[in-house]
Amino acid sequence: MDQRPKDDADFLEPSVLLDETHYQEGYRNGYHDGLASGKEEGRQVGLKMGFQVGEELGFYQGCLDVWTSAIRIGQEAFSTRVRKNIEQLATLVSSYPLSEPENEQVQDKMEKIRLKFRVITASLGVKLEYEGRPASSKEDVEDL
């Protein structure tokens, strides 16, 4: 009787090994496919986010160009305080680390730029804002 259970175990062993082989092969294939699709998805998200940041910075730079041109034409176009804020915004925009997307301070810098822009437009009594940006960071996460 001791022989029979051992024979049953030997009989099932190739089936178990075949199942394990299929499992390992499926795992490897799935892992490699996931790696490839994850890289592509990451590239697409990075491209989208990079474009959005560049577009927003371009908006602020365009406003700066107009304001600095107005200042060159006539110093009295804006108050001293507004001119100082425009200079500070120009410094913030030019110091934004475009080539360092993994810099942990990029979000803080962008928030400072947005805040300084709001200060300037409020001082000028102008309702001007970048409309391409979602209203909240929660929407940014949901878009991803």
Automatic annotation (TrEMBL):
Domain of life: Eukaryota
Domain Essential protein Yae1 N-terminal: 26-64
Stated family: Belongs to the LTO1 family.
Protein name: Essential protein Yae1 N-terminal domain-containing protein
Organism for this UniProt entry: Arundo donax (Giant reed)
